[in-house]
C-alpha cells in the first residue's frame, strides 16, 4: 500500500462471494462515517440490470470490464469503504489500482460458511452449475493464494457476528495502517 494522499485512504474489502464484504463494508462505513461503495451494486445501478442479467446478455468479460471501470471511479472518490465483487481482486490491474488507492483487506471465510450463506440465492451466476458447492470450493482453492496478496487478512467465520468481524477489521487497520483511520 502506498502512503499519503486522499485517494490512498480507501478501505477495500476483498474475498469470496458470501464472505460478508457487502455486509461488513456497510457497517464499517456507518461506524467510521465514511462513504460506502459496493462495486456490484454500482455496476447494477449504471446498467439498470442485475448481475445475472448482465452475465446472461453480455457475458463475464463484459461484466469484468464494467467492474474495472466502476472500481477506478469509486476509488478516485477517496476515503471510501469499497466492497468489491468476489472476482475483482483476481485481476492484476484491479489489484494495482486498489494498492495505489488504499488498504486491501481479505475477509477470509471457510467453505462451509460461504456455502451456508450463498446456497439459497440465485444471484451468483458463476454458481449456476450442476455442482455449485464443488464449484464454490474449487473457486476458493484457486483464489485463496491470490486473495492472500491483500495487505491484511481478517478471518470471518460462521460464529462471528457482523459486529465481531467489523471490530476485527478496525483492529487490524489500527495495528498495521493506523494513518488510514486518522481524522484530518
Ligand atoms: N457474521 C456475518 N458476517 C457477514 N455476513 C453475514 C454474517 N451473518 C450473516 N451474513 C449474511 O451473509 C450474506 C452474505 O454476505 P454478503 O452479501 O455481505 O457477502 P459478499 O462478500 O458481499 O458476497 P458477494 O461477493 O456475492 O457480493 C448476507 O446476507 C449477510 O447479511
Ligand atoms: O466471485 C465472483 O467472481 C463474483 C462475485 C459477485 O460479487 C459478483 O461480482 C459476481 O457474481 C461475480
Ligand atoms: Mg457483495
UniProtKB/TrEMBL annotation:
Question: What is this enzyme's EC?
Answer: 2.7.1.71
UniProt: Mg(2+) binding residues: 22
Give the GO biological process terms: amino acid biosynthetic process; aromatic amino acid family biosynthetic process; chorismate biosynthetic process
Protein residues bound to ATP: 18-23, 124
User: Any idea which UniProt keywords this protein has?
Assistant: Amino-acid biosynthesis, Aromatic amino acid biosynthesis, ATP-binding, Cytoplasm, Kinase, Magnesium, Metal-binding, Nucleotide-binding, Transferase
Molecular function (GO) terms for this protein are: ATP binding; magnesium ion binding; shikimate kinase activity
Entry's cofactor comment: Binds 1 Mg(2+) ion per subunit.
Q: For substrate, which residues are the binding ones?
A: 40, 64, 86, 143
Q: Which reaction does it catalyse?
A: shikimate + ATP = 3-phosphoshikimate + ADP + H(+)
**CDD domains in the record, alphabetically?**
SK
Instruction: Spell out the Pfam families in the cross-references.
Output: SKI
Judging by the UniProt lineage, the source's domain of life is Bacteria
Q: Name one GO cellular component term.
A: cytosol
Q: In which pathway does it act?
A: Metabolic intermediate biosynthesis; chorismate biosynthesis; chorismate from D-erythrose 4-phosphate and phosphoenolpyruvate: step 5/7
Record-stated family = Belongs to the shikimate kinase family.
The record's listing under HAMAP family reads:
Shikimate_kinase
Protein name, UniProt field? Shikimate kinase
Gene name? Answer: aroK
Amino acid at each position: 500500500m502506498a502512503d499519503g494522499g486522499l485517494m490512498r485512504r480507501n478501505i477495500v474489502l476483498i474475498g469470496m462471494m458470501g464472505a460478508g464484504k457487502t455486509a461488513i463494508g456497510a457497517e464499517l462505513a456507518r461506524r467510521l462515517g465514511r462513504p460506502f461503495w459496493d462495486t456490484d451494486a454500482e455496476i447494477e445501478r449504471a446498467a439498470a440490470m442485475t448481475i445475472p442479467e448482465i452475465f446472461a446478455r453480455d457475458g463475464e468479460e463484459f461484466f469484468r470490464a464494467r467492474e474495472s471501470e466502476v472500481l477506478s471511479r469509486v476509488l478516485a472518490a477517496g476515503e471510501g469503504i469499497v466492497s468489491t465483487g468476489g472476482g475483482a481482486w483476481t485481476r492484476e490491474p484491479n489489484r494495482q489500482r486498489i494498492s495505489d488507492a488504499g488498504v486491501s483487506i481479505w475477509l477470509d471465510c471457510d467453505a462451509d460458511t460461504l456455502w451456508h450463506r450463498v446456497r439459497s440465492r440465485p444471484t451468483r451466476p458463476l454458481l449456476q452449475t450442476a455442482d455449485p458447492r464443488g464449484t464454490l470450493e474449487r473457486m476458493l482453492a484457486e483464489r485463496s493464494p491470490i486473495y492472500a496478496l491483500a495487505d491484511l487478512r481478517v478471518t470471518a467465520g460462521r460464529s462471528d457476528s457482523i459486529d465481531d468481524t467489523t471490530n476485527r477489521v478496525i483492529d487490524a487497520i489500527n495495528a498495521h495502517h493506523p494513518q488510514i483511520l486518522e481524522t484530518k
